[in-house]
Write a structure and sequence with these properties.
Elements (H helix, E strand, L loop, with lengths): L9 H4 L6 H16 L4 H21 L14 E4 L13 H8 L12 E4 L4 H11 L2 H13 L8 H15 L7 H8 L11 H9 L1
Antiparallel strand pairs: 1-2
Length: about 200
């Protein structure tokens, strides 16, 4: 069990809403919500609240430079030893079982797990208690939507490109055919499920 991933690097988020990159990120969140059907006036309010929640998450995460010691990240325990803290699952056994339900696995209280940060869950409990459930729900929706934009229609890809251009200076979009060819493994060392099939075709 590790600390939460973030939609923007921690180094930007911890600086708060005054950070230029965070403002660009908020525009990206709002544009995505509007793309998916929200009215802009509502999206601006809701996504701002969700961003504030993510900023609080960033504050309790450990910086990457302090996560280089593998020994400190290796904290074995068992599921039954996890505390039932406010704002977190009332039963960690049931919660983890729900995550692996597709594999029909049974999780027992003596199931061994590794915690990367023994204090993270306590810090997360405090953040969850002080956060608006609507902001948390919208944040989960945002994090589910964000990685799918390039796989949707041209309007979604334009939203992604607008963010990329403002954030990294990317001037042009990758042509659809190049993006698709790369996605299936041609000319790519990605983890695509078809990378080996594509490689064998190239060899032949």
């Amino acid at each position: 069990m590790d600390q939460a991933s973030l939609g923007l690097p921690r180094e930007y988020l911890v600086n708060g809403l005054q950070e230029k990159e965070v403002k660009i990120y908020l525009d990206f969140m709002v544009d995505t919500a509007v793309l998916l059907g929200a009215e802009r006036s509502f999206a601006e309010v809701d996504m701002l609240d969700s961003l504030k929640f993510e900023i609080e998450l960033s504050k309790i995460t450990t910086p990457k430079e302090l996560r280089r010691n593998a020994t400190k990240l290796y904290n074995p325990t068992i599921v039954g030893a996890l505390k039932n803290l406010p704002g977190l699952p009332t039963s960690w056994t049931s919660y983890i079982e729900s995550l692996v339900s597709i594999a029909n696995m049974r999780i027992k209280p003596n199931e061994r797990i590794i915690l990367t940060d023994i204090n993270y869950l306590e810090k997360l409990s405090k953040v969850m208690q002080q956060s608006n459930p609507r902001a948390i729900s919208n944040y989960l929706g945002w994090r589910a939507a964000k990685p799918t934009l390039l796989a949707l229609n041209s309007a979604a890809r334009l939203v992604q490109h607008k963010f990329d251009k403002a954030f990294t200076g990317t001037s042009s979009q990758i042509q659809d055919w190049k993006r698709c060819v790369k996605a299936v493994g041609f000319g790519s060392y990605s983890s695509s499920g078809l990378v080996h099939a594509a490689g064998s075709m190239y060899v032949r």
